[in-house]
Amino acid sequence: MNVRLEQPSASGTLASQGGTQAATIRLTAAQALVRYLAAQQVVDEDGVSTVPMFGGVFAIFGHGNVAGLGEALYQHRDVLPTYRAHNEQAMAHSAIAYAKAHFRRRMMAVTTSIGPGATNLVTAAALAHVNRLPVLLLPGDVFVSRAPDPVLQQVEDFQDGGISANDTLKPVSRYFDRIVHPSQLLTALPRAIRVLTDAALAGPVTLALPQDVQAMAYDYPRSFFEPRIVRFHAPAPGDEELEAAVQALRAASRPVIVAGGGVLYSRGGADALRAFAERHGIAVGETQAGKGALAWDHPLNAGAIGVTGSTAANALAHEADCVIAVGTRLQDFTTGSNTLFSQAHVIGINANAFDALKHRASALLSDARAALDALSERLGGWQANPAWTERARSLSGAWRETVLSRTHAAPAVDALPYDADVIGAVQRSGADSTRQDIAVCAAGTLPAELHKLWRAARPGGYHVEYGYSCMGYEIAGGLGAKLARPEREVIVFVGDGSYLMMNSEIATSIMLGAKLIVVVLDNRGYGCINRLQQACGGAPFNNLLDDCLQGPLGAPKIDFAAHARSLGALAEHAADIGEFEAALVRARSAERTSVIVIDTDPARTTNDGGWWWEVAVPEVSARAPVRDARAAYEAKLAQRDGTPTDETGRRGD
């Protein structure tokens, strides 16, 4: 792709000296920033052609960015598209999802005004930080001159005159810079690109842009804006760490692989994982971020692992003597709050040292593909114990049969369907849909059910944000995934609670012609937390709508289909699974976003699989169920920590 980046000077003509192009070009800081972003190219997935690194900029304009950055984006709208959204947090979610759908090889920028527009980015930045996903945040900022201080929306700190609302983004940014002079872009932008494209650093980058600086002009080197191909950095394994990993594996007979998102973000990582598992006879359990790294029907795919994991993967992990954790943060849902494979030696393969050292692991700092290839070469013909490999194949096969039975069961008579019924209907509704659909979800019960039951056949077909478990990501994330993969059907699974938190990007999807299929499972409240509340001994309270404090009119009867139609979508309410499947057929053939609503059971879940998760239970309570739950909690802690308990199950410490 050829990118035309000719930019007029401040006087409206190209800067020149004696009839030749000058070595510098006079631009405002905003113009320079946009021109630089538009010049960055990356090698496409075909490994040959190049495409823009930035797929566009999401923007909601205000007084802090419309005059400076807005004017610059208009000048480059042909090579760097600007997308208008309806909520700052949501548009940042869309940008993050775009990067995730591109396996971190392409990304987007986001710009807001100062004040609430900027602080609305904090949640999204935290989500990107936790999930190690790149996004460039460009919030407007207050005047560097301080002449009109305080300006509209300015947050004043009584002890530090240099602080603005944008400082809330510092803890959730992998790199933060406030541009107080146009020349600073010459160092800040290359640093930003490095962080965004470094496997060990990837995450949100914030460049705070004071509105007066955006409008300031400076003579920039013309060479700074020459189109260039950005190279992604991922470390190769070091010899000593590699040899230690080889020796640990050779000493093991019951190894298991835990595949995280780093497998998918490594170019060729999924192929390397499959080859490694097959050559050495090792089963694979997948995290939420890593699901899809190995096809669901591969004989060595034991399914999801951890708190929301399969019976197969969890049984193998608990019996394993060595766990190869590839590209995973090993958060508590993966490790069962450090109880699932606490007996095993862990080899942490990760580009990021902070993540590689989790769970007391022996670190192998490396890109996933490079590490697996190098390990396999050094291991040669070594394999896991044949009986262990056969057991893994048997358990994995049995789990696939369980998944089939749960998602293809006949709907219960005179009872509401539950999530597994809906998931099964979606997968039955399209020809070869498991290979083409992208399932998008984020929070509540649905990620647990999808982790267990969604049959991901290829990398990228499973797009669930569960590192931050952020309600409201779903629809906005679906939009970002669709912008990244317009040729594929994007199915957004969202509960009624998350839908009510953030649904505005349905309107954006209509405006952009980015068709989604949004499936709303209405269980009349926060069903997931309601069950957790009761599991901890609590009374049903403030989660399901019927259990909330209410006025004289009672809980609202929400017509989600009518609401979605008001945003421009096609929408209907399905009375049962049969009607739901028929609606899915219509949605797949539609040309614009469709929303299908179905009432579901707030209490029922898939009981197969799962693992303990530590949620602290009150030590004292007037409620007997809480006291019983506390005793069960302490028994689990004792089991994990090796401390004795008395006859009631309470720890002796």
From TrEMBL:
Residues 242-375 form the Thiamine pyrophosphate enzyme central domain. GO terms for cellular component: acetolactate synthase complex. One of its GO terms (molecular function) is thiamine pyrophosphate binding. Transmembrane segments: none annotated. This is 3D-(3,5/4)-trihydroxycyclohexane-1,2-dione acylhydrolase (Decyclizing). Belongs to the TPP enzyme family. GO terms for biological process: inositol catabolic process; isoleucine biosynthetic process; L-valine biosynthetic process. Keywords: Hydrolase, Thiamine pyrophosphate. Residues 443-598 form the Thiamine pyrophosphate enzyme TPP-binding domain. PROSITE patterns: TPP_ENZYMES. Residues 57-154 form the Thiamine pyrophosphate enzyme N-terminal TPP-binding domain.
